[in-house]
Design brief:
CATH superfamily: NADP-dependent oxidoreductase domain
Number of strands: 10
Helix content: 25-40%
Radius of gyration: 19 Å
Bound molecules: NADP nicotinamide-adenine-dinucleotide phosphate
Distance between the termini: 42 Å
Strand content: 5-15%
Shape: globular
Number of helices: 11
CATH topology: TIM Barrel
Length: about 325
């Protein structure tokens, strides 16, 4: 009898003995709290065990409520869940880190967080306004704090015991190297945009060498144009294997050794996105060798301001 496919249950060990992260993760960047709560409940019921959150998403309470409901219903226990959340740009000053972390724990209704990330390497003017701007609409950055100082404050959270692992998000390879070199506790996770149109092989190689997990966001290309799910290489593999294009893209992400995040408010898609299985090696190779489109959909890595960049039509030179 053929062994059951275990890809959807894959976990990746974290550095510093901080446990293991599920390769398959559900993102909670969903603007409406009611929709968030419903989507998270569905995600937990179909089998997702990693939830990616952020103070910036302003819906941690809704995620917390959904977790509480799932736990009360016996769907999951806290120790089966992996909860990631993120420090926002306005809280980079070291003295603001612990209060921000504790506020996230309170909203999420958790005693501890499995992974705490610095959401972006850009410090904004400290304060309660998440998007501080001047009169001309320009972002107000904070020149008074360095990323490494914020990192030291995250290390102290690990020492405090309520934060099991720490990491970075939306960093370049250069920035990551700086922190790795300066760190007492090295980053366990780096969350960046990655999908077959932005494979980030160089970053992934470095992460592998350093024992850092690359956590890919927008694993389906955020459903934007040019649409990864309509790419002829992906759709041909999907047809051949009797899977959906989304299942092909997500299996590729887990199988090449990254953890990934995907999001949907549609129950049948949430179910489909967990129901992945391993691709044959030739399909993995085709995705690597035959997809020529290279595109970043989210500009956050450049400015610290989150946002997917709408495109009307595929750029010149794309496939
Ligand atoms: N660190 C950062 O700066 C950062 C930035 C962005 C995102 N993230 C994290 O990464 C998570 C995932 O990012 P993402 O929202 O871009 O993920 P994604 O899964 O690439 O894109 C989500 C979009 O794809 C659609 N979709 C989902 N499953 C599908 C399927 N099976 N078939 C067809 N379309 C499908 C969804 O539509 P419906 O909802 O309508 O079904 C939604 O429009 C976020 O929730 C967040 O946690 C982090």
């Amino acid at each position: 009898m053929e062994a059951p496919d275990m890809l959807r249950y894959r976990t990746i060990p974290l550095a510093n003995g901080a446990g293991a992260i599920p390769a398959v993760g559900f993102g909670t960047l969903i603007p409406d709290p009611g929709a968030t709560r419903q989507a998270v409940k569905t995600a937990l019921s179909v089998g997702f065990r990693h939830l990616d959150c952020a103070e910036r998403y302003r819906n941690e309470e809704a995620v917390g409520d959904a977790m509480q409901e799932a736990m009360a219903a016996g769907t999951v226990s806290r120790d089966q869940l992996f909860v990631t959340t993120k420090l926002w740009n306005t809280n980079h000053r070291p003295e603001r880190v612990k209060p921000a972390f504790e506020a996230s724990c309170r909203r999420l209704q958790v005693e501890y967080v499995d992974c705490y990330l610095i959401h972006t390497p850009f410090a904004f003017l400290p304060g309660d306004e998440q998007d501080p701007r001047d009169d001309r609409g320009q972002v107000l950055y904070d020149a008074g704090v360095k990323l490494v100082d914020t990192w030291r404050a995250l290390e102290q959270l690990v020492d405090g015991g309520r934060c099991r692992s720490i990491g970075l998000s939306d960093v370049t390879l250069e920035k990551l190297k700086e922190i790795v070199e300066a760190a007492r506790i090295k980053p366990a996770v780096v969350q960046v945009e990655s999908h077959p149109y932005l494979p980030e092989w160089e970053l992934l190689d470095y992460c592998r060498e350093q024992g850092i997990v690359l956590l890919a966001f927008a694993a389906l290309g955020h459903g934007m144009e040019p649409n990864l799910l309509e790419d002829p290489v992906i759709t041909a593999i999907a047809n051949r294997l009797n899977k959906t294009p989304a299942q092909v893209a997500l299996a590729w992400a887990a199988q090449r050794g990254t953890a990934f995040l995907t999001t949907s408010v549609t129950a049948r898609r949430i179910e489909q996105n967990f129901d992945i299985s391993a691709l044959p090696e030739d399909a993995m190779q085709q995705i690597r060798d035959h997809i020529g489109t290279n595109i970043r959909f989210n500009s956050v890595v450049e400015t610290g301001v989150p946002g997917f960049i709408p495109r009307i039509s595929p750029p010149q030179g794309g496939r």
